[in-house]
Every structure is written in C-alpha cells, then in structure tokens.
Design brief:
- With 201 residues, the chain is mainly α.
- Helix content is 63%, strand content 0%.
- The protein is built from ten helices and no strands.
Length: 201
C-alpha cells in the first residue's frame, strides 16, 4: 500500500505508530548512521517519555555505527547467544518457540499479517511485535485496527512481557546506547498499558 493510500488516522495515533515503528527499527538490527542521526535530532519535553527521548538523542550524538553494531551483537547475538533473548516465548515460558509464538501466529493470520520474506527471526521477537502494533494502528494490514483490537493484541502479546524485557535491556551489562532505547520502550509500554486499561472495549 502506497503512503498516499494509507487511511487517515488521528495525529495522536500516528505519533504512537511512529514510536512503535522507531523502536522496531532500532531493535531489529544495528542502526545505520542515518538512523543514529535521526535519533540524535529528536527532541523531548518535560514528560517522563519526553525526558527518555531527550536522553536517547544525547546518547545518539556520541554513538557511532561501529560501536552500536558491537553493542547490538553482544546484546542480541553473541557467541551462541546474546545477553538477552528478546522473544515473548522465552519471557513467558522460559523456552523459545513455545505456545506464545503459536498463539501469535494464529492472531497474525486472523489479521492478515505476514512475515517479511527476508526475516528469519521468530515472529514473537520484540522488534516484530513493535512493527505489528504500528501497522495495526496505521492500517498497514488493510485498515486501522479499532482500539479494542489494539488493546486485545497488546494485552495478549506485548503487555505481559515487553516492559520486563525493556527493564532487562536497561540494566544489561553490554547496554549503553540500548539502555536509552530501553528507557523509551519501557516508559512507552507503561503509557500504552495504562491507556488501554482506561479504554472501553
């Protein structure tokens, strides 16, 4: 679907989708120099989330591509495995490729969400889930999802573990740039959880 053909959504929802997409990009692979420059140009405000974004911008300004690639590899790839395993199945069951992944695949099929051809990670990776939420909000998979549908997906596949993952990423021994990314993610997940809690089904 071309950008010009995307359904119109409220500005607040577009901002939410943009942040989900941004987190997905940063967590899917080491950021390029262009993405680091974009992150360095962000401006926050006095809110908790705004202060986290300001911190991320500050760290991005002194981070280079080589350093962040090394950090990404230590955190998520490593020799055999990285410091963290960013998958819903692992956080919810202690094992990879378990029931949460099967449930996610069923819900993806129901919403006509398909995995990109060049992606081989299990779909319950945190980066993929951030991208799915963005797509549901904007209508990337056909039409914008209702708040009730967003809430159901979030509460089932993201809410039970994402904030815990982001907290672990904040405190990981190899985490420098990604500690700032994690602060944004954790704070955003708390905001989303509360907003969905207050939203009527």
């Amino acid at each position: 679907m071309m950008a010009s053909e995307m359904p119109q959504i409220a500005e607040e929802d577009q901002l939410r989708a943009d942040l989900y997409d941004f987190l997905g990009l940063l967590l899917a692979r080491p950021p390029s120099a262009d993405l680091l420059r974009h992150a360095a140009g962000l401006t926050g405000n006095e809110t908790d989330l705004g202060q986290c974004i300001t911190s991320l911008a500050r760290v991005s300004k002194v981070t280079n591509e080589k350093a962040v690639t090394s950090e990404f590899n230590a955190l998520f790839i490593g020799l055999g495995r990285g410091e963290l395993l960013p998958y819903a199945s692992y956080y919810l069951t202690g094992f990879l490729n378990e029931k949460p992944l099967a449930q996610l695949r069923n819900d993806m099929a129901a919403r006509r969400i398909t995995r990109a051809e060049n992606v081989y990670e299990p779909e319950d990776n945190i980066a993929s889930l951030m991208e799915m939420m963005a797509g549901m909000i904007t209508g990337r998979f056909g039409h914008p999802a209702s708040i009730a549908d967003q809430k159901a997906f979030f509460n089932k596949h993201i809410g039970p573990w994402a904030a815990h993952f982001y907290s672990d990423l904040e405190g990981a021994k190899n985490s420098v740039f990604y500690a700032s990314v994690a602060s944004v993610g954790r704070t955003f997940m708390e905001i989303e959880r509360e907003a969905f809690r207050m939203a009527a089904d």
